[in-house]
Amino acid sequence: MSESTSSDVLVDEYISQFPSDVQVKLQALRQLICETAPNAVEKISYKMPTYAQHGNLVHFAAYSRHIGFYPGSSGIEAFQEDLSQYKGAKGSVQFPLDQPLPEELIRQIVQFRVQENVKKALEKKRKK
User: Fold this and answer.
1) Residue 126 — very low, low, confident or very high, per pLDDT cuts 50/70/90?
2) Nearby residues of 126 by Cβ (< 8 Å), 6 or more positions away
3) Which end of the chain has a smaller Cβ tally under 10 Å, C or N?
4) Helix axes 20-36, 103-127, angle to 10 degrees
């Protein structure tokens, strides 16, 4: 993801609409995802930054009091215990803006989602 693309610009525009302290967190999250899933494609989907590799991996969005992180229901379920301190729903978790991002946990979730999508893609390929 080193070359600048129109998707990069769109994600930059998305991040730039928030206050500077929130932008710092969003850029940190973006960098963490890109480092953890270097083969993922960055795009805007559902009006939020999205990372895809053999299908969507994760999305994120900023709100007034938290960053919503969307690894899908399997990503939440696999890390349910680690995520128990955060508010969330079936496919999402809320990281409060007044707390540091749980970087190692996010890294683990992204790695899990990459492995899950690669496995699904291989299984699909075998069926053909």
Assistant:
1) confident
2) none
3) C
4) 40
The total of structural domains in the chain comes to 1
Q: Computed over its alpha carbons, how large is the radius of gyration of the chain?
A: 14
**1 in a domain, yes or no?**
no
Q: What mean pLDDT is predicted for residues 85-103?
A: 97
In this structure, what token pair is assigned to residue 22?
């929130």
Give the 3-state secondary structure of residue 90: coil
User: Which among 50, 49, 58 is positioned nearest to 110, based on CA atoms?
Assistant: 58
Helix (H, G, I), strand (E, B) or coil at 79: coil
Domain interval for residue 25: 6-127
Q: Within a domain: residue 106?
A: yes
Residue 80 lies in a domain: yes
81 falls within a domain:
yes
One-letter amino acid at 58 equals V
Residue 69 token pair: 């992180």
Question: Among all chains, which residue has been given the structure tokens 């769109």?
Answer: 10
Tell me the CATH number at 16: 3.90.1150.200
